Amino acid sequence: MVGSPETRLVVLRGNSASGKSAAAAEIRHRFGRGLALVGQDNLRRVVLRERDRPDGINIGLIDSVARYALDAGYHVIVEGILYTSHYGAMLQRLCADHRGPTHCYYLHVPFAETLRRHETKPEATAYGEAEMRQWYRERDLLPDGIETVIGPDSTLAQTAHRILHETGLAGLPALDR
Fold first, then answer.
1. Does residue 44 sit within a domain?
2. Is the alpha carbon torsion for 48, 51, 55, 59 positive or negative?
3. Domain that holds residue 75
4. For residue range 109-131, what is the model confidence (pLDDT) as tens digits?
5. For the chain, how big is the Rg over CA atoms in Å?
6. pLDDT per residue over 88-98, tens digit each?
7. Domain holding 24: CATH number?
8. Residue 129: what pLDDT?
9. How far apart are CA 77 and CA 98, in angstroms?
10. CA dihedral (92, 97, 98, 102) positive or negative
C-alpha cells in the first residue's frame, strides 16, 4: 500500500497537445505546495533521455517517484500521454495500491485539434503532423472505465477547476514545505 487516506492521486492522460501539462501545472499553481507533479516527459525525455517503448525504464521511475511522494505525504499528479499498452499495468497497480482517493482523467481532443494546438507551442518546429499522427491514439482509455473523459470544449480554467473540486484538492490546505 502507498500514501495515506489523506493523500490524493490524480492520473491525467491524453494525446500530445491535449492540454495535460497545462492542466497539471494550473492545478498545481492553484493548489500550492504539497502537490507533486510527476511528468512523463520530464522523467522519460529529460532525466533518462529514453524513447517511449513498452519496457522502458521510465515506467518504473514514474511509479517509484509517485509512490515516494505519496508516502512522504504529498498529493500527486501523474501526467503524460502514458499509452495504455505501455503504462496501463503500472497505473492500475499504482491506483489499486493508493490508500487515499484516486482519480483518473483522460483529456480527449480530436486529432485535428491537437494539430492546431501544437502549432501554438514553442516546440512546434521540432516535430510535426507526421510524428503526431504516429503518436495519436483515439480514446486510449484504461480498462474498467476508471477514467473520466474531459472533452475538447473544456477550457484550461474549467478543466483545472473541475479536477480540483472532483478530487477534493480544492478544499485542502497547501502544505508548508
1. yes
2. positive
3. 9-171
4. 999 988 888 777 777 777 878 88
5. 15
6. 999 999 999 99
7. 3.40.50.300
8. 83
9. 13
10. positive
Q: What angle do CA 14, 105, 46 make, to 5 degrees?
A: 50
Structural domain count, the chain: 1
In a domain, 40, yes or no: yes
CA distance 65 to 175: 18
In Å, what is the CA distance from 48 to each residue of 41, 45, 58, 168, 172?
10, 6, 7, 33, 33
Structural domain contains residue 142: yes
Q: Which amino acid is at 160?
A: A
Model confidence at 177: pLDDT above 90:
no
Cα 88 to chain centroid distance, Å, stands at 13
Which among 1, 164, 10, 25 is positioned nearest to 74, based on CA atoms?
10
Query: Do 134 and 37 meet the contact criterion of CB atoms below 8 Å apart?
Result: no
Q: What pLDDT, on the 0 to 100 scale, is given for residue 24?
A: 98
Q: Determine, yes or no, domain membership for 2.
A: no
Is this model's pTM higher than 0.85 or not? yes
Pairing of the two strands 35-39 and 75-80: parallel
Residue type present at position 16: S
